[in-house]
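During the reporting period the student researcher (J.K.) took over the structure-prediction task from the postdoctoral fellow and processed the backlog of single-chain submissions. One of the processed entries is reproduced below for the supervisory committee.
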Amino acid sequence: MITTNHVNYDPHTQDRLLIVGAKWAPVGLVDQVQRRLSNWSVSISDTYLKGIAEVARQPVQAVLVYVEPSQAQLSNAVTGLRDAAGCEAKVVLCCRVPAEPAARQAMTGGADDYLLFPFFGAELEQALGIESDCGEATGDMTIPTTNSIVEPLMHLADLFANLSDSPKSLLNQAAGLVKEALGATGVMLVVDGAMATAGEAVTKPVLSVPLNHGDEAGPMGQIALSARIDGAYTPDDMEALTQYARIIRQVIATASQQRHWQRLAVTDQCSGLPNRRYLYERLDAILLEATTKRFPVTVLLFDVDDFKGYNDKFGHDAGDTVIKIVGELFRKNSRDQDIVTRYGGDEFAVVFWDADGSREAGSSQLQHAHAVLDRFKESLRNVDIPNVTEKGGGKITISGGLATYPWDGNTRVELLKKADDALLAAKRAGKNRVFVIGQSDDKATT
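J.K. obtained the following structure tokens:
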């Protein structure tokens, strides 16, 4: 338990308030309570169980309980706090707006009132039945601005605006902000094996806190500080660092979740390949780069010959297996920079490109594309498709069309249209072949 005692505190004459549930409380709650109740002694207890034990150990005039909806048996916890505090003490609940239904339910445990955070005007004092120490009109939002902790915390909160940045960039920003906020000569931030630093190397940490996952899974890392530039760290610095760790943990978790949803948005569920949306975004970006660096870009569209027959004869599960294996084989046989996507249905789109241009004299994107196609077709001839090959489905073949920037088109739309025209020509010519746009015969047959 962390306790903040005011100057000349007399336990027999000074009113005492205990904040329970500080483990889940939002940044600024403790600071705002201390500011509004400047003549009180404000203590902090991380969890409900510890709060009950603390109230039983030392009497209080009021208990402020932060409601965390994910915690089980909230009403029972409030009942325990009410019993421990006695009937003379005020028990007030506090929560964010989304948790208001949980707070209303927890009121059945014997609480006197509940408030939404952040507090407005003299709401806190009114709930506790005391006069406001700050003399502010009801209705004015009281967010502390004079405390040295608040501004750095606001800067840390700005990290949420940069969630799309790379994980390394976010960690570097967070390390720099903590260094500036606490006046450290150096900060080291370690998260799941990745490390970011600011200032000098932290070889012998003077102050450190863990970055917890927020559950029982154990810490995800830690923040470690070297010596302070001016003077020694104070207990308030330790509390501030704990608050920073909570924000950074939330930023990291939110950024990870955002990247997860972004990946899902551009990933085809059946094949596991990037989808058409991703293709459009990347091809536009590559063509834009190609206009300045003058490297060629080749687009391939191909589909599985007679795919409908596999679905009709063996079922849609077998068809999905064909799509998945075809996509995996092409990705395996292509180069790292080649972009392999599922275009739709049984159709795939591939982008061949080299940012540095052709490395060998006389080489071309078409040569690279044909080399990949040859490797892919050889793999396709030798692969067995579950529920297809053993049931007499025969070997899978493909037909495709190739178009190259800048000769066949300058935009994504033009290139895909020309590649699709070549694909249709390959189909009309008997399938199992790949055409280059403008050619009358195929350049890659099986």
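The committee noted the following: Residues 2-128 form a domain with the Rossmann fold fold (CATH 3.40.50.2300).
J.K. will present the remaining backlog at the next meeting.
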